# Entry
Amino acid sequence: MSVINRKDDKPECVCSPTFERVLDAFRVYLNVECGLAANTLAAYRRDLRRFGDFLRRAGVDAWERITPLLVQTHLAELTDCGYVESTIARHVVSIRMWLRWLHETHRIPEDILSLIELPKRWKNLPETLNLDRTEDLVTSPDLDHPLGLRDRALLELFYSSGLRVSELCGLSEADLNLKASYLRCMGKGRRERVVPIGRKALDALQTYLKELRPNLLLRGVKTGRIDAPLTRRKRAAAALFLTRNGARLDRTAAWRVVRREARKQGIAGKVSPHTLRHSFATHLLEGGANLRVVQELLGHVDIGTTQIYTHVQTKRLREVHSRCHPHGAANVAERRRRKMKGEQRDSSS
# Structure
């Protein structure tokens, strides 16, 4: 059995025509029956085409010949190619979903799903910014810059509402209710939720909508990205955040805005839109918010996903206890230093 090139070489996946047809049918199932988001569908397709390429090279031309050992061999190959555990775990989820569908549609007689285990993954604590650094980041854009008002509104909304980057880029003006200070967004699995907008984000949005977005809409009409005439309904249905040419701001461009402003402020590390989402959740918990409330605001289906932030909160509690409690580590050490200084003064006198 041949081995594919290293991941850095970006090998081209070649699947059999039969596999491609079945993959198209599976995509319809995921889209219609499961209601998965477009990005999730694309990730499933990439992972399964890599598996289809492996099956072709292994000479497996019938679904009945797929075994847990064969899947494990594919995962070992991914490991050899340098894929990290989180990426391999996503491949396993894709393959398990596909195998379950094959069984439910009577394409394979046996459900081998339970025999394929997910690799163990380390739970990394989310990277967050403290309050001062977050404030520096969201207020960083130069408002005199041609797109400064947009970038300021974008950063303020990221931090104020804790949105995912795909959720924020998918917003239209019609999704905002500025009078009631909330927005509607479409999250993972096409689940809609309502999220409040903070006062500073509201002010930044109103300024952007009044002073900059109308000009960007007109550019969109001129460049053909927005159909003319520009009616009130089309304005509301157009993307909330637009590029300088009037196109919808995509995820990559939003990421670049966050990274650029973080560099301007000298914030170290890989700061991303998700850093502001993590900071949003952590600061809420530090302020006394209930974990269930944070779960609803983040759009997590399982509260176990939200509980990762309790570890960050526990670290914060230890710091407060050490600094503030009479028997905290910091206070005990300080009393010892004072006692030693007093003894030294007594001995010298």
